[in-house]
Specification:
337 residues; alpha/beta; Rossmann fold; 12 helices
């Protein structure tokens, strides 16, 4: 029963907001409002610095194009900046996430010759010898440096293994627990949004996503921290040779409405115009190593920006330094190999 004396809304006089802002600035607390950099360029530049506190950012893309990889690299950069992170994973367990972080960190430190994700997994699984993981990694290119680097930040990385009943209430409670311990709110990463449970039997995708996206946005606003959510695509969005757009995400209308920023990944080979592909197989093959990241919605700045990043999936990472796309892109590639 709702207590009649308890208000269900909150009014804010802008004169009070101005006074509070001025007080915060005088006390040197401006950093609490600054964007949290993703570590990817030129993405951060077009997002005016990165993920903004109180905002919901959505990342979509075809299956297998590294949405989790990208999100974990964002989380890693946020950790390195001193912020805590809550990674809500409905797809991967904590050990898998640790393996990915180690491989990506090694790759960023030692380059193409660094230990691969496959090798890291083999080391974590063990070979029956009584040898610590640190000793095993010390024998691999970049492994020791990667472990030493991420070990400084792992206390601030929290993994919530999502299940069929894991809801926004659970995510909010976990974030609040971290905020109490760290005395600052974490970046919340949700992998992925269509698997978030709700407390009623709603089967229509748009209605479910409206509920979940609205609650994620409320979480961002209440916590004053960014929320970064991964979205699955519908059947049209996973068709080879088709460019995935915001409207191809499952529950797209609701998600796009609530999100402050929408980022979409695509295979460059699938979306580059035909005339870039027909001048020899070698020319076409170079596009297969690149992914296009498009800012499809950006309430705080420019949208319709196409960037490309090189895939290093054998090391569970993208190269962080990308560039704007210079080729013509299309929504459907009419090209037969």
């Amino acid at each position: 029963m709702i207590d009649d004396a308890t208000p269900t809304f909150r009014l804010s006089r802008l004169s009070d907001v101005l006074a509070a802002t001025d007080s915060r600035l005088r006390q040197g607390e401006a950093a609490t409002m600054r964007p949290w950099a993703t570590g990817f360029e030129p993405l951060d530049g077009y997002l005016s610095g990165g993920l903004r506190p109180g905002e919901l950012t959505l990342l979509g893309g075809p299956q297998g194009l590294g949405k989790t990889t990208f999100a974990l690299q964002v989380a890693r950069h946020v950790l390195a900046a001193g912020h805590p992170v809550l990674y809500v994973s409905y797809e991967h367990d904590a050990v898998n996430i640790l393996e990915r972080l180690l491989a990506a960190e090694a790759g960023e430190r030692a380059g193409r010759d660094a230990v691969s994700l496959r090798s890291v997994r083999a080391l974590v699984e063990g070979d029956g010898s009584a040898t610590s993981l640190s000793d095993k990694l010390a024998e691999t290119p970049g492994g020791a440096e990667a472990l030493a680097s991420i070990s400084h930040d792992l206390d601030r990385l929290n993994v919530l293994r999502g299940g069929v009943r894991t809801s926004i209430a659970d995510i909010s409670a976990a974030a609040a627990s971290i905020a109490e311990r760290e005395v600052r709110h974490p970046l919340v990463v949700v992998d992925y949004v269509q698997k978030v449970a709700i407390d009623s039997a709603i089967y229509e995708e748009e209605v479910r996503m409206a509920r979940v996206a609205g609650e994620l946005k409320d979480l961002a606003l209440t916590a004053g921290a960014p929320v970064f959510a991964i979205s699955a695509s519908d059947s049209v969005g996973i068709t080879e040779g088709k460019r995935l757009r915001t409207e191809h995400l499952r529950g797209a209308s609701a998600l796009a409405y609530e999100a402050d920023t929408v980022l979409v990944l695509n295979e460059k080979f699938d979306v580059v115009a035909r005339h870039h592909l027909v001048y020899g197989s070698a020319n076409a093959e170079r596009f297969r190593t690149l992914a296009i990241l498009t800012i499809e919605k950006n309430r705080g700045g420019m949208a319709g920006i196409d960037m490309e990043f090189r895939k290093r999936f054998d090391q569970a990472r993208y190269e962080r330094d990308g560039q704007l796309v210079t080729e013509q892109l299309v929504d459907s590639r009419i090209f037969t190999e």
